[in-house]
């Protein structure tokens, strides 16, 4: 159940702005699959366009960090923010980008540890070391 | 200002359990610097010991993900959890592990984008695509 | 699946404290529909009463901000807190209070942007400008 | 204490990309004041440029929701995300856009109530009413 | 630095609504100390009154859970929400209600573990066991 | 729908590391029921082993806080972190450890109040009282 309509391919085809974004997603990702987040955003074309432009620029463009590392950071944020859909889509994304089971185990160990120490540090209200100052 | 005492080196030296952990931190990290989170945990020796054991096992042991990638994931979780001290310590940690300015810029772009799309997806309550099912 | 029983109308009718709250919800909102949050709270009558009293005082009473603005603020908090039910109920509430599609698109743009800049600011640990001091 | 350098006006003047953004901030907002978030982002020019472009498009452009309402939604997200700097800057921003004390009191009442009911609903795991389905 | 004025005793004395709440806080808690959260809320008398009424009813009234247990739950929520002031005030509150160092160590161990397993469960998107259904 | 396989008893029996943990869970908890979080972690044996070791040490070992109090703190963190599965499992856990309906009502009142005041304090950016300093 969503709070907005999930657009079908037929509906997307009939709207030029939505069609343009869906076409670019398919061309950029070299797959016919357009996942639900884009179908949910289709009713808000301005948000659809700017969000896709940003995802394309950040995630689908070669840059200093390799694609899998960027996906792992994305997954980490998504889990910490408690976003169920995002945990699903970015775990799938990391696997598609070659994440091994051993890397996944590492990922889980790091996010578990980080969450634990974040809670301890917040409870103890640890003062920042001057050594960390820029 | 912390909610607990921040132990000095002299105080740590005088307590065998705390001294053992501080000695191991210094030996493992090959530096004399022991940052405040360990000094804040020193009053809770059992938590100090198990937390350090876990940090050592996860972060200071060779594994499937390289040290910088693990640090970036740790940073991402820390920022998403809003932990001020952790943002400081893990940004410093990532720099110590070789994070370049270009990689840092990538990191910021990814966490910004992830936070934005997490919010959109949660607002839209996007249903999980069957394609993501394991 | 809930962690408590969801009370039916018949069960609510049979309990004077619950019936009184349900009657007041219906009278205040001018609808027979009592949504599930109240049915879930019915087993905890003291929490049911104080929560409804607060919702009525804050949301169903004329005040400085108009009803739609208050609903949009409520939605924003609910999304940021990752509350799935609340995202559904307050999006429906905003629509019932007249939110247009263009306003909804604005809402999505603002919460996406805010989430993004919140993450950047937390990562950068930006110091508060003296100009913001009261 | 920040995790990055906070750029002075002199430093910003000397970098064409940063200068261009700072000039546009000043022109758009009709004030000489450039607050710290932009000075912290100056070391990451690509993030600086895209973030400012988004803030300008969403917050400084006329749209379906009035400027104060957008600022209140921004504040609400910032508070729920626990961003200290953002709470300061957007409370100041709302006041600059005309928020009255009575409206601020309403704002506080709504975010307090929303946070409370979000917690109750999450604890009770209330199922979404079919009436909220789109 | 706060986003509102922190009221002094003299200012509180001069405002009948604020004076009444401050007097009741002092009488209820049997101490002359009124901590800053109330001085920050003093500019919003309606929120001040309803918040204090709720704190008094929930925390300062005998009920099914003993005062220390309620304070520990309050601390746990405050830490998970990343509220710095609240971590300080409720850790002080728990100590004032008799929390021992051993109990504090337990508290830290539980919140660290809970944060860790919460992150794992969210990443794995574990389905709810039918055995937990009410 | 999970992001990993949920292991059946037959699959767990066939893997010595997983079988050892499942056997210990059953022996420690004196029940045949192994809930889904362990079945989801089974594919990551190192994380499974260390997580169970920590849960056993913290939650299933006699310590300064009684088992129900520890469970209530765990529930509080889980709710504040928005973990749906965890809200289910720890509410069930608290009931199994003897939580009465009156205690549950108290729990709900405290987490609701804490969430509300956390939001107010974060919005107001209340400065820490010197009295809370250690």
UniProtKB/TrEMBL annotation, chains A, B, C, D, E, F:
Residues 47-126 form the Carboxymuconolactone decarboxylase-like domain. The keyword Ligase does not apply. Gene3D superfamilies: AhpD-like (1.20.1290.10). It comes from the Bacteria. Keywords: Oxidoreductase, Peroxidase. One of its GO terms (molecular function) is peroxiredoxin activity. The keyword DNA-binding does not apply. This is Putative peroxidase-related enzyme. It comes from Rhodovulum kholense. The lineage of its organism: Bacteria, Pseudomonadati, Pseudomonadota, Alphaproteobacteria, Rhodobacterales.
């Amino acid at each position: 159940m969503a709070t907005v309509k999930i657009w079908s391919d037929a509906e997307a085809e009939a709207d030029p702005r939505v069609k343009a974004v869906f076409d670019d997603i398919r061309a950029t990702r070299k797959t016919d699959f357009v996942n639900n987040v884009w179908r949910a955003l289709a009713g808000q074309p301005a948000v659809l366009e700017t969000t896709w432009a940003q995802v394309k620029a950040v995630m689908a463009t070669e840059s200093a960090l390799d694609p899998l590392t960027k996906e792992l950071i994305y997954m980490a944020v998504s889990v910490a923010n408690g976003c169920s859909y995002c945990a699903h889509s970015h775990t799938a994304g990391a696997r598609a980008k070659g994440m091994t089971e051993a890397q996944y185990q590492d990922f889980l160990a790091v996010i578990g540890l980080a969450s634990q120490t974040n809670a301890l540090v917040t409870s103890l209200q640890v003062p920042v070391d001057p050594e960390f100052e820029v």
